Each structure stands twice: as structure tokens, then as C-alpha cells.
Amino acid sequence: MAGRNPDRGKTITTVLGRRLGGELLRMREACGLRQTHAAEALTASVTKVAKIERGQVPMRDPDVRALCHLYGEKDEAVIGKLLALAKADRDRRKAKGWWNQYPQLAAMVEYVALEDIATSMRTWELAFVPGLLQTPDYARAVAVGAGSWEDPCEIEPFVEARLTRQARLRSDRPLELWAVIHEGALRQLVGGRDVMRRQLGHLLDMAALDTVRLQVVPYLTGANAGMIGAFSIVSFGEPGALDVVHMDVPSSTLWLESEEDAARHGRIFDRIARVGLAERNALDLIETIRKEMSSGD
């Protein structure tokens, strides 16, 4: 899913660009216009309009406004969302991309790039401690257990990259993280008792940060909205910017890019959070499990 290197003169496609292009395509088709009409409004080629609608090129604010005017969109709130999305997409494309030095992140490059420009994230995890909250030993054990690396030497750069991602939580432009984790993920012996004991202690430390909100859904909750699977909702700082949803599936990474999908998963996350333990109680449960790991019960 990650695009090609723009420095080589080739177009790249981003999640944000596809979402913006998809919105503009929907608006154009709704008013019965063709790409030739959009090209005339932009004083551009039909080829460029096609690239815009596929998310392959960044858009300037005047072009966004010109197309909105052509399509009869006068609602400033709607136009503002599209402008914010266009800006976030431009920022994404201009990012220096520390992650590019880690080929081990190739499958996640789009996610990591979005994470780098995001202002907040809500994540629900069933089986793992979220990557942004993992210790090196835990991340290493997950990589080994998943069997994703043919060459074991690739695991250490992967772990290093994961730690680099975590720096956002403490940076001068911190990422706000709201993580809800199922109790099962906290009891799974990833790497053994010592690794899990340190991992749980690290969760307690990270929960003390102003940028981290941590909840746990206990076993006793029973059936709940989170049983559909793990997902993350990535949000951006511009007023009206549209969220995107990220999900991992066995064969690929799935992005849900429509406003409806983002809103639906936002509601699902809220339902999960409501059945989760309050933060103080969640931390108490984590400490209880940590002590169990220490005692070997």
C-alpha cells in the first residue's frame, strides 16, 4: 500500500489522498459532471483530475475550493473538512520519513507515516499490548512468535523502529493515545513471565503520562462490541479533519477511509470504552496481574 519514492518523480498514493479523491469523486458524480468539467475548472488535464480522484497527487487549497464551487457545495463545514484533509495529505507527503531507513517497516509504512502526523489515536487491542506501549523484549517476543521474519537479524531493526515510534508520546508535539486492551492480552505469556512482568510495569509507567489514557476490558465483561476485532482510529489536528481507521487482517492491512466507517468505528470504540474498567481500576488490575507474574501463581 505504501507509495513509491516521490524523489524518483513517480506518483504516490496515500490513505489521505485516496480519501480526499474519493470524496471529490462522489461529489462530482452526484451532480452528474464528467472529469472534463473538473479539468476545465482547474485549467488542468483530465489525466490530472483522474490522479486527484485516485489520490495520487496532492491538492492545493484553491483547487479544492474550485471543485467544491463547481459541484455546488456551499457548506463551509464540508469544505473545511476537505481543506483539512488536503493539508494533512500534503504534510504526509512532505514528511522526512525516519521510517524509510527501516525496510522492516515496509508493510506498515503508511500506518507509521500517518501516525507521525496524527495528533491523537484511539486503539482497541484483543491479543497484544499496543505497539506504542510495548517494551523491547515484548516487541521482540511478538516478532519471534509471529514468525514474520525469515532472517532473525531483521528483528532488531524492527524493535528499534518501534521504540522510535514511541518517542511521539513524549515529544514536544505529543501524540495523545487512548488505549483499551482486553484482559486476555495482559495475561498472555508473551516471552515468558519475566518479560510480561516488565511489560506490565511499563504499562503502569506509561499510564502516568498526560498523553496516555489506558483502560482494560476484563474477562467478566463477556460479549461486547470489541469482539469484531482490533482496530485503531487515527485523528489529525486540523479543524474538521477526517479520521481514518486501520485494521490488520491476516493477508494485508485494511484501511477504512470513508466518513461513515470512521464514525461507525468511533461509536464502536465508545461502546468498548464504556464496558472497560475506569482508569484507576484498570491500573489496579494490571498491578494485580503483574504481581501474579512475579509470584508464579
From TrEMBL:
It holds the Pfam family DUF5753. Residues 23-78 form the HTH cro/C1-type domain. Gene3D superfamilies: lambda repressor-like DNA-binding domains. InterPro entries: Cro/C1-type_HTH, DUF5753, Lambda_DNA-bd_dom_sf. This is Helix-turn-helix transcriptional regulator. It comes from Streptomyces shaanxiensis.
